């Protein structure tokens, strides 16, 4: 019988970490925004970068947000403490994972939780309180519901995250429909 994978909620100072985010979709945007609030330096690599990333760069400065409008190529993970693979190409995500494993870099692959060294939680913040919510399986709906209850209890609401989650849900549904129809035209859009 296979043992269930369980993740320990580990809160750590990441202000000196260098993080590479490969992809520039909604998930990458949401995670980049969260990392920046904790003082992390983030490099975003994607052929097409949303205007929201440029707004983050204007808000936090080029020292904290480096935007590289190009495709991921082998070797790009060198020098980073953490890598987030959030492309819309499973093949690209897998090659990023392989490179990170080879070099001992912590990696999170948004499209495949089995390839994650850590889980990226839903974050709820109020004053000096930080709550992270995730699940040991892939029940995103349950995480959203629990997060909403905690936000309600704390009297806080993060409209940007809520909006991003709704948009992410719409994009995921669209991608599922495209894949079931055998279409793969958007695969390289955010590599």
Automatic annotation (TrEMBL):
One example of a Gene Ontology biological process annotation: siroheme biosynthetic process
One family name in Pfam for this protein: NAD_binding_7
UniProt key word Iron: no
First-tier enzyme category under EC: oxidoreductase
Chain spans, region Disordered: 155-191
Entry GO MF terms: ferrochelatase activity; precorrin-2 dehydrogenase activity
Catalytic activity: precorrin-2 + NAD(+) = sirohydrochlorin + NADH + 2 H(+)
PANTHER family in the record: SIROHEME BIOSYNTHESIS PROTEIN MET8 (PTHR35330)
Protein name: precorrin-2 dehydrogenase
Species whose genome carries this gene: Eubacterium ramulus ATCC 29099
């Amino acid at each position: 019988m296979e043992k269930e994978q369980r993740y320990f909620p580990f809160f750590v100072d990441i202000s000196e970490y260098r993080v590479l985010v490969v992809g520039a979709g909604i998930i990458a945007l949401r995670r980049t925004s969260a990392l920046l609030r904790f003082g992390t330096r983030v490099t975003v690599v994607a052929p097409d970068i949303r205007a929201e990333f440029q707004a983050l760069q204007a808000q936090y400065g080029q020292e904290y947000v480096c935007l590289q409008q190009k495709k991921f190529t082998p070797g790009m993970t060198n020098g980073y403490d953490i890598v987030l693979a959030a492309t819309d190409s499973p093949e690209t995500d897998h090659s990023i994972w392989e490179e990170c494993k080879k070099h001992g870099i912590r990696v999170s692959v948004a499209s495949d939780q089995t390839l994650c060294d850590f889980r990226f939680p839903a974050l709820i913040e109020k004053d000096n309180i930080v709550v992270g919510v995730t699940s040991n399986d892939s029940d995103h709906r349950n995480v959203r519901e629990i997060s909403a209850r905690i936000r309600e209890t704390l009297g806080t609401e993060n409209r940007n995250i809520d909006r991003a989650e709704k948009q992410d849900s719409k994009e995921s549904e669209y991608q599922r429909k495209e894949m079931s129809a055998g279409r793969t035209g958007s695969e390289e859009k955010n590599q």
